[in-house]
Sequence to fold (220 residues):
Amino acid sequence: MSNIGNTFLKYANSNIPHSIDEKTTVIDNAAKAYEAFLDALKIDWRNDPNSENTPLRVAKAYVNDLISGCYSEPPNITAFDNVDGYNGIVCQNNIKVTSLCSHHHAPFTGYAHVAYIPKKDGKVIGLSKLNRIVDWFSRRFQVQENLTSQIVDYIDMVCENNNGVAVMIECKHSCCSNRGIKHDSVMRTAKMTGAFLDNNDNSRAEFYKFVEFAKTDSKP
Fold:
């Protein structure tokens, strides 16, 4: 298991990077297991032309896309010296979140809003890296609360010597909309460190103002 997996990820959503050959083996085994799963549900998939290769398709979808973070290396993040001494908020809004809940393995999707405050003698990273971090931690069986914490902790690590990190995630969970009482609510989680928790600092209010601005932006 990678150091990142040991530090941030545990249990069913752990990170064990696989080679192409290793992933192929996982896909083959998973496809056979999914055949047995469909048989246990008494689904006559073998006689349905549309379902003929479904077990293999499902296995590929999980390994290559839906939970790809379990099998891939964490994103390569290069942190740069803050040469101009910028010490304001760096905020990226409307980062797409696509994940599967740990409880029912049903999708939950939405957006993450991510911010950090570099120190004048600290580190900064490219905005695309924030997107990569969110996507990598999302692509596994997850609980939204844990996902929020993992992103905060990882950004805190790669943005060395920062003044604070803030992450807010808002998602709709299909395990709620498609089962049980079938409600269409939005779950929001937020975690902050440093200046964002300081009641005498306006960073938290500024972050939430950015989030409100983002709601009027065109989302991808």
In short: The chain has seven helices and seven strands.
